Predict the 3D structure of the following.
Amino acid sequence: MQREEDLVRRAQRREPEAFSQLYEEHFDRIYRYVLLRVRNQADAEDITQQVFLKALESIGSYRWRGMPFASWLFRIAHNAVVDYWKKKSREKVAAVAPEAIDQMVEESSNDPAALAELTFDVKQLAGACEQLTDGQREIISLRFAGGLSVAESAKVMGKSEGAVKVLQHAALVKLRRILCPADEESHG
């Protein structure tokens, strides 16, 4: 935490290498979060760049409050995704881009731990996520694609930690029902 706080302070003093390091450390998590939310690789890349541009422009107003810098970045990303969908809804939303999901699998293949987490077919998981509410998709994206804690996710979503836990539980129960119907029959 102290190292990150020092990096942020240096970035606030406009030291380019400090912001560059913050970018490198957080880019993948922000990108995966955005990609899972917008389901289009090109749009996810554009939005992720917008998030970091906004962060660079606004870093002077960032105040260290004991939460990781990532929470602030995810809040910017959350707002960018909300704006994206508002704009898309006016343009009639396009279909899911399977190549975006393929890209996530390809990128995670360099990370054995991430690859091990992909126990379900990613397309199957993405399809199942389509059946979740917006809030449920958001929490799944933040917690599992973004790797945020419950507290960090709550801050990004503007909800209490308890509300986030309830939302996450409901999302996971619904995903389990969708992805493992045989389990539900044997337990139900």
Remarks:
- The chain has a mean pLDDT of 80.
- The chain has one domain: 2-187.
